[in-house]
Design a protein that fits this description.
Blueprint (H helix, E strand, L loop, with lengths): L2 H7 L16 E7 L8 E6 L2 E5 L15 E3 L3 H5 L4 E5 L5 H4 L2 H4 L8 E3 L1 H11 L10 E3 L5 E4 L2 E7 L8 E7 L2 E5 L17 H6 L5 E5 L12 H14 L4 E4 L5 H13 L3 E5 L1 H12 L24 E5 L9 H6 L13 E4 L8 H13 L3 E3 L24 H11 L3 E5 L3 H13 L3 E2 L6 E8 L2 E9 L5 E4 L2 E2 L4 H13 L1 E8 L6 E10 L7 H13 L10 H20 L4 E8 L1
Parallel strand pairs: 3-5, 5-6, 6-7, 11-12, 12-18, 13-15, 13-16, 14-15, 16-17, 18-19, 24-26
Antiparallel strand pairs: 1-2, 1-20, 2-3, 4-22, 8-9, 9-10, 10-11, 20-21, 22-23, 24-25
């Protein structure tokens, strides 16, 4: 077993105090993606059958210091592990598939269903975990129907910013569930194949629609991908130096637009960054990305080609500190040094929470003397009036959400995939159309049943849905107390106290000695002198049975109060008492 697999398997689920569904009732359990953007995961539970739809990660929020990834809490799934019949995937973005390598060691015999590109990206991700030959991947395509226990899943083509995305219809004894996945309507995308409205209409009566809510606040229709293609064609022709462009590595249709514009403008392509190179290799091998032979350069070959003939497609669209773009911006990149005449294009919008990182990188890029094209500078759809649109969303705006509701006419809408306000606005849109809706958040358990033909539902409880954090080689060990300490360290620093006492009398024989980081300036010795007085006043002789823990707690309390009064800050305090 690989080291990565061992630490993935090492996570221990929480206890779940939740009985099985009442016979004849259908249970929906969202474990991620409701009230947040990321770690999308939904459990569908009927009788003895459990089906999981998507299993994604979330990038850490600003206050999650040192955390690499955030996973859903799998505890409910593992409580019913013997009943899990399948994991069904809507598409290959990390926020929908990225947590599977962490779940699979607990469910080694459960098949994973997905389309060809989705499974290709998943298998590539699983190589890091030593799982590529172990996970039972079963390829499906739009139109396929598979039996999963007494349930049945049907896959419907939808348009998103990644190829091979599908909605998933699950037929149950209570009625038809339709999970849209991430989608929009765009007849110009992916070879002119729009979201399959005819197939959606053929599904029949929809009991519950679980629909993407990301852009429920945005009026109108999402902009066509054709606009981005036109922008690239013209913008690439205008640039006289190197073009460095960053986008999501898994956004294969966007990569194809870049390739097409590069070929039209006689430029060579260099794909750079681990995830970018990996996605390009998978998409090319599976036929989703067409790059003419001889058009690609290695990073070592770049300097041998004139600047006006180069396009570098790199990782870093979210401002990740160690990404290729961030390293270029801070002049730490091994191979690429930015220079005046270069143009850097951000063909992506920041995920909520990443705005500050992206803005920081953009500012650093400008300091390098390059031109930067990004969302705020590229709102015009007419390239003659500005840079033009270099990114459009893969998510449906309000008019498209309304169209999905009108095509499917569900008995009940449950908004998914979005922060609380997004879910709320989506629900209000359904209400305007005369459709009932129910707002859920992560962990809430909704049970549905038929009563005289009418669909009725109620929230019957909650299950664990806290963030499970990946920190280096640790999964699930980072709890709120640790994050509070890390926050305190980042804001107030650390102060360590060392003092030696005589073993019998407990009198101070050495110290107190101090060690601080990020707390006091070099001239803060007077503050520490006062702190020493506090130590001497609060470290009287004590009986052995009182215990060092109580003495340390008393000192921490007294010192914390002193530092607040003296400097207005309370550092993380470490107290070491040595008996000699």
């Amino acid at each position: 077993m690989s080291d990565a697999l061992q630490f993935a398997a090492g996570w221990k689920p929480a206890a779940v105090e939740m009985a099985a569904p009442v016979p004849g009732r259908l249970r929906l359990v969202p474990l991620g993606g409701l009230g947040e953007v990321g770690k999308n995961m939904l459990v569908v539970h009927y009788g003895d059958d459990v089906v999981v739809i998507d299993c994604g990660v979330m990038f850490p929020l600003a206050w999650m210091y040192g955390v690499d990834l955030v996973l859903p809490n799998f505890s409910y799934v593992l409580q019913h592990k013997s009943q899990v019949r399948a994991i069904l995937l809507t598409h290959g973005h990390e926020d929908h598939i990225g947590a599977i390598p962490y779940l699979w060691p607990h469910l080694p015999d459960v098949p994973v269903y997905g389309t060809r590109l989705t499974l290709g990206l998943l298998q590539n991700r699983c190589v890091e975990f030593g799982l590529s030959d172990l996970i039972s991947c079963r390829e499906v395509k739009a139109g396929d129907v598979v039996a999963v226990g007494q349930l049945e899943a049907e896959f419907v083509h939808v348009v998103h910013s990644i190829s091979d995305a599908v909605a998933i219809a699950v037929r149950t004894p209570v009625g038809l569930l339709l999970h849209t996945g991430d989608f929009k309507f765009d007849a110009t995308s992916q070879g002119g194949r729009d979201t399959d409205v005819d197939h959606l209409a053929r599904l029949g009566k929809v009991a519950v629609l679980l629909s993407d809510s990301t852009y429920a606040e945005r009026p109108g229709q999402s902009t066509s991908e054709e606009v981005v293609a036109r922008t690239f064609q013209k913008l690439f022709g205008r640039c006289t130096g190197r073009i460095i462009i960053t986008t999501f590595a898994s956004s294969v249709p966007r990569l194809q637009q870049i390739v097409d514009a590069a070929v039209q403008n006689n430029r060579w392509l260099c794909f750079h960054g681990r995830s970018m190179e990996s996605s390009v290799a998978v998409a090319t091998r599976l036929g989703y990305l067409n790059i003419p032979p001889g058009r690609m350069l290695t990073i070592e070959q770049l300097e041998a080609v004139p600047d006006k003939e180069v396009i570098i497609v790199a990782t870093g669209s979210q401002g990740e500190p160690l990404s290729a773009i961030a390293l270029m911006a801070t002049r730490r990149h091994r191979w690429i040094t930015l220079r005046p005449g270069d143009t850097v294009i951000f063909s992506a919008t920041p995920i909520p929470g990443n705005e500050a990182l992206v803005n920081q990188v953009i500012n650093q890029l400008y300091r390098c003397g390059v031109e930067v094209v990004y969302d705020m500078r590229a709102k015009s759809e007419d390239v003659s009036h500005g840079p033009g649109r270099v990114h459009v969303s893969g998510h449906a705006s309000r008019d498209e959400l309304a169209r999905m509701l009108q095509v499917t006419r569900p008995e009940l809408l449950v908004p998914v995939h979005g922060e609380y306000r997004m879910l709320l606005h989506h629900g209000r849109l359904a209400e305007e159309l005369g459709i009932k809706w129910r707002l859920l958040e992560d962990g809430q358990v909704l049970e549905l049943e038929r009563d005289a033909g009418e669909l009725k539902g109620e929230v019957v409880g909650t299950v664990p849905c806290d963030h499970v954090m990946v920190d280096g080689a640790s999964v699930g060990d980072i709890v709120s107390g640790i994050l509070r300490d890390r926050t305190a360290l980042s804001e107030d620093g650390v102060c360590a106290l060392g003092v030696a006492v005589q073993r019998d009398t407990k009198a101070i024989v050495s110290g107190p000695q101090w060690w601080t980081r990020g707390f006091l300036r070099a001239d803060g010795q007077d503050v520490l002198a006062g702190a020493g007085k506090v130590v001497r006043e609060n470290l009287p002789p004590w009986r052995d049975e009182a215990g060092l823990d109580a003495v340390r707690a008393n000192l921490k309390g007294a010192l914390g109060k002193y530092f607040i009064e003296r400097v207005g800050r309370r550092p993380v305090l470490i107290v070491v008492i040595l008996e000699v």
